[in-house]
Amino acid sequence: MKNFIEELQWRGMIHDMMPGTEEELLKGMTSAYIGFDPTADSLHVGNLVQIMTLRHFQRCGHKPIALVGGATGMVGDPSGKSQERNLLDEETLQHNQSCVKAQLEKFLDFEGENAAEMVNNYDWFKEISFLEFIRDVGKHITINYMMSKDSVQKRLETGLSFTEFSYQLVQGYDFYWLWKNKNVKLQLGGSDQWGNIVTGTELVRRKGGGTAYAITTPLITKADGTKFGKSEGGNIWLDAEKTSPYKFYQYWINASDADVENFIRIFSERSQQEIEALIEAHKQAPHERALQIALAEEITERVHSKEELENAKKASSILFGKSTKDDLKSLNEKTFLQVFEGVGQAEVDKADVENAAGIIDLLVTHTGFLKSNGEARRALKENSISVNKEKVTEDYSFNAEELISGAYLLLQRGKKNYFILKVK
Predict the structure, then answer these.
(1) DSSP string spanning 147-174?
(2) Structural domain includes residue 222
(3) 331 part of a folded domain
């Protein structure tokens, strides 16, 4: 077994830890859990810190448990929130749970001696009545103790419902139930969860007479002050339908030098020696972006697939490197449009394209890509006009077989000036 605490420490992944935790883990295989919010049908990049924490935990020989909060999802955690969130029905939560498990299976091994396990706290809360809960659980935690939590204090001025106030008791009972029924000794989570996690250890001690432990990881901040896991379009999701593999890959490729050293320690499985060697190579030639490429390739392949990684790399090379007509035609419509997001577009009937008076008609009359026939002729003489990444002359004639995804022509002047012609 590897030392899990040492693994987290060199990766910079420990924020707080209860005394005795490392000693407990060194005794042998230990079960630990992390809770995941089931209010969406996909996890996102912001969840990856906790997913990787569980993965490192399992790779060190321990048993990871992923708790999907079917019950707590109906309540809402006030930690880090400025307002109460919308509550979901049981059917939606169950659908979200199945989607989340499929994503976790790409990181965790659900078979073997220390097989990962997934649980839903709705399974034990659905049988507990309100009166039963406040009698058997609520009496063990004082109001003073609950009021002292940062997550409560920060919301007192703006307002905190009893539903949210009770959240730490509900989460604390999760830890107690898992300790009693599945011998879980440790809860892991982000630093904003410390108060909720410690409430669980208190409940284990006061109600069960046992000992439980806690570790939290730092919340990731980016050097430029923007929120980790976000882009201009919102969350970077693990679901390919919500965030394409191309955009996912680009998120990591575009990581700043100031951030990527931190990111690769957290999100890569590479050893300390491998990562230190990569960091040193990056410092010697930062323009080659060795760290960004290594991280983007590793994490895109794991979240999506080797095939999707190759497609994402191919799509990236179309904009930023050398590519061919075949590379372009191999892109699906969604990826093609994302690669050229923001590029000017025009729609033309297929008959108009087929009857066009050559390339100049396409460049000027049907698209307005170039302003005049004279400008088009000059550009063609300069050999700076391409259709689907291939240089063309004034003799060019349209062939329907070259349409990308059966619908698009990519016009280009020089290296960076693009225009999309959609043929209906």
Answers:
(1) HTSHHHHTTTTT---HHHHTHHHHHHHH
(2) no
(3) no
